[in-house]
Design a protein that fits this description.
The complex is a heterotetramer, with 1 copy of chain A (293 residues), 1 copy of chain B (522 residues) and 2 copies of chain C (332 residues).
Chain A (H helix, E strand, L loop, with lengths): L4 E5 L6 H15 L4 E5 L6 H13 L4 E4 L8 H10 L1 E5 L10 E4 L2 H15 L4 E7 L5 H14 L4 E8 L4 H14 L5 E4 L4 H12 L6 E5 L3 H9 L4 E4 L2 H16 L11 E3 L3 E3 L4 H12 L2
Parallel strand pairs in A: 1-2, 1-3, 3-4, 4-5, 5-11, 6-7, 6-8, 8-9, 9-10
Antiparallel strand pairs in A: 10-12
Helix pairs in contact in A: 1-9, 2-3, 4-5, 6-7
Chain B lengths: L17 E10 L2 E11 L4 E6 L5 H9 L6 E6 L2 E3 L4 H6 L2 E4 L11 H5 L16 H15 L14 H14 L4 E5 L7 H16 L3 E5 L3 H7 L2 E6 L2 E7 L5 H9 L17 E9 L8 E6 L3 E6 L5 H8 L7 E6 L2 E2 L5 H6 L2 E4 L3 H5 L6 H6 L7 E2 L2 E2 L1 H15 L15 H13 L5 E5 L7 H16 L3 E5 L3 H7 L2 E6 L2 E6 L6 H8 L15
Parallel strand pairs in B: 3-8, 3-9, 6-7, 7-8, 13-20, 13-21, 16-19, 19-20
Antiparallel strand pairs in B: 1-2, 1-4, 4-5, 9-10, 11-12, 11-14, 14-15, 17-18, 21-22
Chain C lengths: L2 H20 L6 H26 L7 H18 L4 H24 L5 H19 L5 E2 L7 H8 L1 E2 L2 E2 H19 L1 H11 L1 H6 L4 H27 L1 E2 L8 H11 L11 H20 L7 H32 L11
Antiparallel strand pairs in C: 1-4, 2-3
Helix pairs in contact in C: 1-12, 2-7, 2-10, 2-11, 2-12, 3-4, 3-5, 3-10, 4-5, 4-10, 6-10, 7-8, 8-10, 11-12, 12-13
Classes of the chains: A alpha/beta (293), B alpha/beta (522), C mainly alpha (332).
The structure holds adenosine-5'-triphosphate (ATP) (2 copies) and magnesium ion (2 copies).
The site of one magnesium ion has 6 residues of chain B, from helix 1.
Chain lengths: 293, 522, 332, 332
């Protein structure tokens, strides 16, 4: 009786997914025959996400687009879902599963873009410290690896990355401690969306804004403000809005029998972009427009 | 039998301070108190006696506001109440020493005595005036004859000393009626004397006292009037002139008590338990040696804190010993825990039954079977039938007053709880049994039964070590008496030398007067 | 079954009926099987916890142990190529040793259970993360262990084998707790350790045994969880599971003061908690409210149980008094 | 200061000396200021927890309360444009009400503290996440509240104002706990609530007051934390902070059975925990080991304290006995 449901399952509660929510909303307006929803697992854990998807399948959803908490090793679990419903992956891919397609960006490329920012900001080289929530998470590892690759052969070095377990208090204290422990550091990288604002604030408190190059990821308002102010060199943004919007439409088309949108390699890459001082106003306006959607 | 009036009114002229009428209190399965009426006049000392479970504590708890009566009225100063609250009772000037000790061992003596009524310093902050507090408590302690100071942590006090603190606490209330629920149950003679003097002092000040005790001679000495409870009903009232030991007993148990069993005539057997150079943590520099023979009851007397309990705990393996060895039947024991002691047939009836003796929340049957589970189980599975059978047997042989063996032990009266502690060891055929204040809080009828029992045990070849602060008991029951003074055995008295005077002399560290012994004696 | 257990069962059935009425898919065999699988995993965990709680203790390190032991298990069989039965036994032994260490610190060195196991919570989590250098432990693509997978994640006639394992463990533990001498000692120690010791019970050993049982059952659950998720990120795997286990026990009538509770109760508690999680997902309640729903139901459950008990006692007293009731509420 | 406190102080100094020897930058004023800022935040939290622990209770909802109240505070002033002093007072009142609710359930309805506050932990976390729809609450770029920021995150002569706030609160709470009638009642209730009631103490009110104090101090800490991070993702903000607070109290000599502990102790406990976190970063220890270091030190601290006490007693006895010691181990 009800309209068929399509679900977008994220990997944990984060502001990052607010843009995806807007994308889902926009897609919903254009897909009146489907009911679209975005689901947060109550914790970022494989078991809980798996459970959530099992329950969604039970509740009869027709398609799931998932940002798997741990795609590399959840092959069987994801395949189980894929056997019962149309499964798409987003954010980080699980290429060995029977997913229909991946839509998202490449974290390695994003890391490389961060290296570009650093190289541009510090032509004479420098010493970087990174900050991240979960050191072991795939997206963190790929971004760090991408950045290291991008920096290879330059005089810029990423000497350490400190984790904070997504505890913002520790995130800020880590920056403060890094300033004390390594007085010679010239650049700081915030790998998770909340890390850059914490760097910004710790530097501001220490009166070191502008003296240390800050490389950001994602588009927290403080990060964008810092970019605009010039105290954050630039930030690498993904486009979850696009993932969600295009992904949901693609999924609806696929379920409707139209498979033309799926490329042969099953990868739909929506590239990350560098937002510098010049682009920030336009980007922010764009964000606002999406949120108002 | 004396006439039993409807209400037990005081014949004096003054208006009663307090009167109860038609009070009833029932618990599921028992009526603890029924249609009870009495009056208390200012400056009157009322002795309240009755068997274990007769309802004495229940009555006092009603006066203290801790228990709500089902029915009846309480009149204080002419104002009638259905019930009292703890506060209401305090405000009316009723002070209370509970039967079970309720001190806070994380606070010092001073804090305990005035808890809830601290002297305050001026100002809105409600800060405690500590100097004044210490001074007030100091004088109270002197009055009850305590040998410790106001700032001693309660955790450092022995049971008897704690009882003194409780008494000081009751005195500290600017009270008009002091209720003492078995205050002397673990007090030795000198301290008891002091308490009796205190009671007389209170009387002289016009303060009323209700004094509950199973030591009837104490009642005889101070009471103006005695109320006797039996099964929750007022069984009789004795005016001062008629207060008499045998009459009280008769009213309490409905018959006269048989004379106490005579001391055994048989010669004790081989040494059952021998302790050599035991050093305890309280008195590490005083080694203690002791021998108990099969078939004898060895009494262990001494003053408060003389180290008897400590010795018993070491012999039972609960406390570590700093030195010395324990032998049973000449064999050295590897004594490291109570389990080792139990396995070797050494049992202990502990001093503090609420904490150490029983599990208040367990049914009677499970308390009795607990130390002997292997005997009540098959292939590690519990046999409830065997448990209940044993418990029933003990219940009838000890006369434990309870609806059934499935009754929660915590709902029994104090004396009946004590019988449950005894029952669990008696059910195991003891070889050596140590009893630390075994008749604490036990009524006179049951006491006689326990003495009988000890004698029966001894005659069956059991070695009994009885620690007691009750002089009559020590002298009346023991075959020999060892006396401790400051952690050392100051002397052992044979039957011939056994007298109250000699025990006291040894207890304070002096030489006893020994009878000349015939060289060709036994 | 006690009155308390029956009340809990009723609650479970009522909640189930309401959910089924709103979304009939709740009763689909596949949903029941999925849920009973998780009941199996959490149930094993909670029974372990129950043994510790009965002694008046608490085991907070459960979640971290699950992460550490799970990481080790997967590492042993997926990376180091150990035979799975060997790894299985090894993990159970390790779990037992962790329990033994806790029990020893608590029973012999007289440390507080809360402190010891809190330290365990911190230490094992850290060790698990360090072991994988904060990475994920998981199976490579196509790596299969058919027998192990059947035993842990498989189904027999549609019934998850983990649930069957729970039933077996429950039966055994029921006998141990409610019929054996050991069980009696546990209750005695929980009620009053001192008095138990004065009755000649070797309380230290019994307490240690309780922690060992908890450790072994936790290790078993760790293996089941590992085979369910097939991948473990040690930073988050098993977070808060100790709270689930404790909550299940408490809902099932256990007192954290010790000496109270039954095996049936703890299983019913687990079932209710899993039913609630299932409900949130099936009824489309925002998952942000998942925690709130769980907390709310536990609170209401405990409250109703408590108030109902108080009401019954009062009624019984009044009846005993066979007079106009003057048993007014006691305030202080 | 008690012997216990002095031992803890020594431990803090020794650890500090070792760290300073390896990395002298540990002693830089800026590092000390940074660390003392966090000591201020966690100290306020831990004092609140201490008041509850003294009564024999526990407050597990602290971390979730910090998330909920922090979200509300930022939302009030950053989004709804409320005047910050009004919002400040409102949040403190809210914290007090949460405490009152817990106290009421525990003291009047006789629910177990662990259960009530565990439900609080779940419920408040869920409500906070629902309130922001799982988003982040934070200030817009450039949004400033100079006075508020000075009071919460500012420094006076280099000393963080949060630390000064802690000193003031500590002084007040020391008097309350160690010199006032209320404090004395808290100790009495912690030891034996029943007996305290028989002494005519209104135990219910006192217990409720303890939870209210904890609630208000937690609310204050929530504001400080919010102003420190300036952004709150309610799913993770304050996770496990209750464990930090409890650990600080336990390290500082509190017993979870109630009736023991001092204000100085809980502050020293907080200092040690923050010193350890600082140490992990300054010595470049992998962040994954952060938890392990913390757990290890707490365990060692508690163990040494306990064993040292036992050792001293034994030595004293042996010396008194003036004989060859034959102190055989006591087993049970
Ligand atoms: N809380 C309770 N629940 C059930 N029964 C109780 C409770 N308190 C007392 N009783 C019962 O009430 C009766 C009277 O007990 P009470 O304690 O008043 O006796 P007592 O005269 O003080 O005895 P003792 O000399 O042994 O102290 C006993 O049968 C006891 O089992
Ligand atoms: N003067 C004292 N001050 C404080 N505590 C004392 C003192 N004397 C003894 N104690 C305490 O008393 C205990 C040793 O006495 P123990 O209880 O063994 O003696 P007892 O002869 O059984 O006396 P009681 O009649 O008090 O039970 C120790 O635990 C000790 O702490
Ligand atoms: Mg009594
Ligand atoms: Mg004694």
């Amino acid at each position: 009786a009800d309209k068929p449901t399509l679900a977008f399952v994220v990997n944990g509660a984060s502001d990052f997914w607010k843009a995806a929510e807007a994308g889902v909303k926009k897609a919903q307006a254009e897909l009146p025959d489907y009911s679209l929803e975005l689901k947060y697992p109550e914790q970022s854990s494989v078991a809980i996400q798996q459970r959530l998807m099992d329950d969604l399948v039970t509740a009869g959803v027709k398609g799931i687009m998932v940002s798997a908490v741990d795609p590399k090793t959840s092959t069987d679990g994801l395949n189980k879902i894929a056997s019962q419903t149309a499964l798409f992956t987003t954010d980080s891919d699980a290429p060995q599963t029977n997913r229909v397609a991946y839509i998202g960006s490449s974290n390695v490329d994003a890391g490389k873009q961060a290296a570009e920012i650093a190289k541009k900001a510090m032509p004479n080289g420098g010493k970087c410290i990174g900050f991240v929530g979960l050191l072991g998470a795939d997206n963190a590892k790929e971004r760090i690896q991408g950045m290291k690759d991008g920096l290879a052969g330059t005089k810029i070095e990423l000497v350490d990355v400190r984790g904070d377990d997504i505890d913002q208090t520790r995130a800020k204290k880590n920056v403060e401690d890094a300033l004390v422990a390594s007085p010679d550091v010239t650049c700081m990288v915030g790998f998770y969306s909340y890390n850059t604002p914490r760097i910004y604030e710790a530097l501001r408190d220490a009166g070191k804004l502008g003296q240390i190059t800050v490389v950001g990821f994602d588009d927290d308002p403080i990060t964008l403000g810092g970019v605009k102010e010039g105290t954050v060199a630039a930030t690498v943004v993904q486009q979850p809005f696009e993932w969600a919007y295009r992904g949901m439409k693609l999924m609806a088309a696929y379920l409707g029998g139209d498979k033309s949108g799926i490329p042969d390699n099953k990868l739909i890459i929506i590239p990350t972009v560098i937002i510098g001082k010049d682009d920030v106003d336009k980007y922010a306006a764009n964000l606002k427009a999406m949120a108002g959607n | 039998m004396l006439n039993v009036p409807e209400t037990s009114s005081f014949a004096g002229v003054e208006a009663p301070f307090l009167s109860l009428s038609g009070v009833r209190k029932s618990y599921p399965g028992v009526v603890a108190l029924d249609n009870f009426s009495m009056e208390v006049a200012p400056g009157e000392v009322i002795g309240l006696v009755g068997e274990n479970g007769a309802g004495k504590s229940t009555l006092m708890k009603i006066l203290g506001g801790v228990v709500k009566p089902d029915r009846g009225t309480i009149t204080v100063d002419g104002i009638e109440h259905d019930q009292l609250s703890v506060e209401g009772s305090m405000n009316a000037g009723i002070a209370f020493v509970h039967q079970e000790l309720n001190l806070f061992d994380n606070l010092d003596v001073a804090a305990n005595v005035f808890l809830g009524r601290e002297p305050l310093r001026a100002g809105p902050l409600k800060l405690v005036d500590r100097a004044k507090l210490r001074e007030m408590v100091g004088s109270l302690l002197k009055r009850v004859g305590a040998n410790f100071s106001a700032d001693t942590p309660v955790s450092k006090l022995s049971l008897a000393q704690q009882q003194m603190v409780e008494i000081a606490k009751a005195l500290s209330i600017n009270s008009r009626l002091v209720i003492l629920d078995e205050p002397t149950s673990s007090l030795p003679l000198p301290e008891t004397e002091k308490l009796l003097a205190v009671i007389k002092g209170l009387k002289a000040d016009g303060i009323s006292v209700i004094f509950i005790s199973h030591r009837l001679h104490e009642i005889e000495r101070v009471a103006d009037r005695v109320l006797v409870l039996r099964d929750g009903i007022l069984a009789g009232v004795l005016p001062k002139s008629a207060i008499d030991h045998d009459e009280m007993v008769r009213l309490m148990i409905g018959r006269a008590l048989k004379a106490r069993t005579a001391v055994s005539m048989q010669t004790p057997g081989a040494v059952a338990l021998s302790a050599q150079d035991i050093r305890t943590t309280t008195y590490p520099h005083h080694p203690v040696s002791l021998e108990i023979r099969r078939g004898e009851i060895l009494g262990l007397a001494g003053l408060v804190g003389s180290g008897r309990t400590e010795l018993a705990r070491v012999l039972f393996g609960i406390d570590a010993r700093l030195g010395g060895e324990v032998y049973t039947d000449g064999k050295k024991l590897g004594l490291h825990s109570a389990a080792d002691a139990v396995a070797n047939g050494i049992f202990l009836v502990p001093e503090d039954r609420k904490l150490e003796g029983i599990l208040l929340d367990f049914p009677i049957a499970q308390n009795i079977s607990l130390p002997d589970m292997p005997a009540h189980s098959k292939r590690y599975l519990v046999s409830v039938r065997s448990e209940n059978k044993t418990a029933e047997k003990q219940r009838s042989s000890l006369g434990i007053r309870a609806p059934s063996v499935a009754t929660r032990t915590g709902s029994l009266s104090g004396g009946n709880q004590q019988k449950v502690v005894l029952a669990k060891w008696l059910a195991m055929n003891p070889k050596i049994i140590i009893m630390d204040e075994p008749t604490r809080g036990i009524d006179i009828g049951a006491k006689a039964e326990i003495y009988n029992l000890m004698r029966v045990l001894a005659e069956a070849g059991v070695a009994v070590l009885m620690i007691s602060s009750d002089m009559e008991e020590v002298i009346g029951v023991s075959d020999r008496v060892a006396v401790m003074h400051e952690g050392q055995i100051s002397g052992i008295l044979d039957k011939d030398d056994l007298s109250q005077e000699n025990v006291m002399l040894l207890a304070v560290g002096k030489k006893p007067r020994l009878a000349k012994r015939e060289p060709e004696g036994r | 079954m006690s009155k308390k257990d029956i009340g809990l069962l009723l609650l479970i059935l009522v909640v189930g009926a309401v959910v089924a009425a709103i979304n009939p898919r709740f009763l689909l065999p596949i949903n029941l099987a999925n849920t009973s699988n998780l009941i199996g995993l959490f149930g094993i965990l909670s029974i372990g916890q129950a043994f510790v709680i009965i002694t008046g203790g608490i085991e907070l390190s459960v979640g971290s142990s699950i992460a550490l032991l799970g990481v080790l298990f997967i590492d042993f069989i997926a990376t180091r190529g150990m035979d799975w039965p060997v790894a299985f036994i090894l993990i159970l032994i390790l779990g037992g040793l962790i329990g033994l260490a806790h029990g020893w610190l608590i029973a012999r060195l007289k440390l507080q259970p809360f402190v010891v196991t809190l330290c365990g919570l911190l230490i094992y989590r850290g060790v698990a993360r360090f072991y994988t250098a904060d990475g994920t432990a998981g199976f490579a693509f196509g790596q299969n262990f058919p027998t192990l997978e059947f035993l842990t994640a498989g189904r027999t006639y549609g019934v998850p084998n983990s649930f069957i394992a729970l039933i077996v463990i429950m039966a055994i533990m029921w006998v141990v707790l409610h019929r054996s001498v050991f069980g009696r000692y546990l209750y005695a120690i929980g009620k009053n350790e001192e008095a138990a010791r004065f009755s000649g019970i070797r309380t230290g050993r019994i307490i240690m045994a309780a922690y060992v049982i908890c450790g072994v059952l936790t290790a078993l659950a760790a293996i089941y969880f590992a085979m369910y998720t097939r991948s473990i990120s040690p930073a988050s795997h098993g977070n808060f599971y100790e709270l689930y286990a404790i909550a299940a026990a408490v809902l099932g009538g256990f007192s954290l003061r010790g000496g109270e509770g039954s095996i049936v109760g703890v299983i019913l508690g687990t079932i209710l908690l899993q039913e609630l999680q299932n409900l949130v997902n099936l009824l489309g309640i925002p998952s942000s409210l998942n925690f709130s729903v769980m907390g709310g139901v536990i609170l209401i459950g405990v409250l109703v149980d408590q108030q109902w008990g108080a009401f019954r006692t009062r009624r019984r007293l009044v009846r005993a008094a066979r007079a106009e009731p003057s048993t007014e509420g006691q305030r202080n």
